[in-house]
Amino acid sequence: MIVHPTLQILVVMSGKDNMHTPWSQITAEMEHVQADFHTSLPDSFAGYDAVITCGVQPDPRQTEQLLRYVQEGGGWLVMPYLNDIRLPESFGVQPGKLGPQNELRIMFKDAENPMAIRLPDAIYVSGKFHPIEVQADDVEILLYTDWQYSHKSMWTTRPYGGGHLSCTTLQDFSEMMLRQVCHRLLRYWQGTAPSLSASLGVGILGYAPSVGQLHGLAIEHVPGLHLKGVCDLSEQRLYQASQDFPSVQLFDSAAALAEDNEIDLVIVATAPNIHAQLSIQMLEAGKHVLCEKPLAINRQQTQAMEEAAVANGVHLSCHQNRRWDPDFRWINECLKKGRIGDVFQLETFVGGYRHPCGHWHSESAVSGGTSYDWGAHYLDWIVGLLDKPVAAVTGSRHKRVWHDVTNADQERIQIRFTDGCEAEFTHSEIACVRKPKWYVLGTEGSILGEWHDVTAHEADPLYYFQQTAIPATEMMPKITLYQPNIAGEIEEITPVLPERDAFAFHRNLADHLHWGEPLAAPLIDSVKVVSILEAAARSMANNSSWEVLDAG
Predict the structure, then answer these.
(1) Which of 74, 100, 219, 509 could bond 69 through an S-S bridge, CB–CB 3.0 to 4.6 Å?
(2) Do 7-190 and 200-319 fold alike per CATH?
(3) Architecture in CATH for domain 7-190
(4) Element (H, E) at 8
C-alpha cells in the first residue's frame, strides 16, 4: 500500500481530561501520524516535527526552550481549550475574551489556501466563542468565524525563524475537516505537503455507460484527479465514452491501459468475476486501483489483491460510494452519539416483486450471486455501523419463480457478532410486500427506515403527461427515530437528513491518495464484506449451517 511521510508529534496535555483533543483520533485514523502523549513538557524536543500544547501554560524556561526549537525548524501549535493561556509575543496573537456557548460557522480566511483543497466551504461546530486577537501584520489567519457581522480569527499561524507558531481556540474537532486541517498544517510545516497542482491520471477499465459516466463526471469535478483513459472490449462502449468525454484516450485492451505511464489510478468497473484478475494486473503494473463492488468473489482473491498492493507499494480500495448516502450518514452519526443506546439488532432489506434483469447481474457465475449485488452495499453499511468482530454467519436462499436466471429469487444473510449483537440482510425479487429498508433496535431507542416510492410527471403535449417511476433504491427512505420519554411514552422524531453530496467519495479518495487522510470506506471493511458473502454462500449450500469467517 502507499507509504506516506511519517509525522512524529509530541502532544502535551494539562491532564487526562484533555484526551478529547483531536490528536488521539488523528493518530488512529492516519497510521503515518505518530504521537507521544505527555502531561508535562519533556527536557528535549529532538525527533519531533511539531509540539502541540493543549491547555498547558509553559513556564519561562520551557517557553524559551520551545521557541528555540521552533527557530531551528520545528512547529509549535497552542490549543488553549478555554484555559487562560498567555502566548509569547513571538506568536503575534493572544486568545481574546471568552464568549458564550454557540454553534460556530468556520471558514478558511483564504478560500484559495492550498490546505483548503477539496474541503467544504464552511462547517458548523459547537463550543464557546473564543476569538484570537491578532497583534502583528505578518500573522496568517487560517480559519475564522462570523460573529455579529464581523470576522473573528479562530486559527492563526506565523513563521518564526526556520519554523512556525500557531494557535487555535476551537474546542470541537468532531468534524473531519478540522482534523484534516490539523494534519495538513503539520505536513506543510514538515515540507511534505503535496503540490497544489499534483493530479493523478485516471483510467476506467470497463465502461458500462451508467457507472463509467458516473466515475468520469466525478473525476472531472474533483481537483487532484483527471480522466486520462477508458478501456473496454466493446467498440460501442468506447464510442459512448468518446461522446461523454471527447478528450479521453481509448484503449481496447487492459494490457495497453496498464502500459500507459500517464495513468496513475485505474478504476476496475467490470463484472465481479474478473475484479481480482484485472485488479492484480493493474497493481502489478504499478497502478493504484479502485475496484467496483464487491471487491472480489472470495477471500482467496481479496488476499491476493492485498498482497499485490503491498508488494508494489500502491493503493487498493473498493467503490463503496453508498457510505455517503444521506440515510446511512444520519444513522451512522446517530449510533456514534449513542442516541439509541447499545445496538443489539440491525436489519436491512432491498427488493420487491419483479423479474430480474437480463444482464450479468442475474447470472451467479458472473455476479457471484444474488447477495453480491446490492448486498455488497448493504453489508458494507452493516460492517460500517457495527464495527465489531463477527462470530458466525448463516444464509438461506429460495429459487421458486424466476427460472430463466441462475441467481436465487431471494437470499437472506444473518450475522452474529461476538458480543451477541445480530444483523440481517435480505434481497428478494419475490416480495409482494417489502420489509423496511432499515430496522435498528437499541437499548434506548429504535430507528425505522421506510421505503419512499416516487413517480415523476412531465408535461407531454400529445398524451398530456408522461410518468416515470424513480427507483426506490435511489430515493431516501422516511427515517423515524423512536425513543421513550421520561413518562415512559414512545416519542417519534423525524430527523432532517444530510444533503446528498454527489462527488464526496472521489474527493475522499483524492484526499487519501494525496495526503494519506482516512478513507470513509477502508479496505479492511470491503474485505470483511467479501468474507461475509463467501461464508453465507457456504451456509446456503450446506443447509443454512452457521459458518465462521475466514477473516473477521
Answers:
(1) 74
(2) yes
(3) 3-Layer(aba) Sandwich (3.40)
(4) strand 7-13
Sheet with 249-251, strands from edge to edge, namely 249-251, 225-231, 200-205, 265-268, 288-291, 316-318
For residue 121 the three cell numbers come to 466551504
Edge-first strand listing for the sheet containing 33-38: 33-38, 7-13, 50-54, 75-79, 163-168, 151-160, 140-146, 101-108, 122-128
Looking up cell 422524531, which residue turns up? 493
418, 383, 341, 388: which is closest to 520 by C-alpha?
383
DSSP letter for each residue of 384-446: HHS-S-EEEEEEEEE-SS-TTSSS-SEEEEEEEETTS-EEEEEEESB-SSPPPSEEEEETTEE
CA distances from 185 to 120, 189, 193, 350, 475 (A): 16, 6, 9, 44, 39
Which residue type, as a one-letter code, is found at position 85?
A: I
Q: Do 399 and 430 touch, CB atoms closer than 8 A? A: no
Q: Could you tell me which residues come within 8 angstroms of residue 248 by beta carbon, excluding any fewer than 6 positions away?
A: 216, 227, 228, 229, 230, 241, 242
The fold of the 323-540 domain, in CATH, is: Dihydrodipicolinate Reductase; domain 2 (3.30.360)
pTM of the entire predicted model: 0.94
d(CA 281, CA 546) in angstroms, rounded, equals 35
Cα dihedral 129, 138, 223, 257 in deg (nearest 10): -130
The rounded Cα 51 to chain-centroid distance in angstroms is 28
CATH 3.40.50.720 holds for 200-319? yes
What beta strand segments (E) does 207-329 contain? 225-231, 249-251, 265-268, 288-291, 316-318
The answer for residues whose C-beta is within 8 angstroms of residue 29's C-beta and 6 or more apart is: 179, 517, 518
DSSP-based three-state secondary structure for 7: strand
Domain ranges of the chain: 7-190, 200-319, 323-540
Q: What phi and psi, each to the nearest 5 degrees, are found at residue 310?
A: -65, -45
Count of Cβ atoms closer than 10 Å to residue 146 Cβ: 13
CA pseudo-torsion sign 296, 298, 304, 309:
positive
With beta carbons less than 8 A apart as the criterion, state whether 140 and 157 touch: yes
Asked if 476 and 496 count as a contact pair (C-beta separation under 8 A), the reply is no
What is the mean pLDDT for each group of 10 consecutive residues in the chain (552 residues)? Answer: 91 70 92 94 95 95 97 97 94 97 97 96 96 97 97 98 98 96 97 94 93 96 98 96 97 98 98 98 98 98 98 98 97 97 98 92 95 98 97 98 97 97 98 98 98 85 80 92 95 95 96 97 98 98 92 49
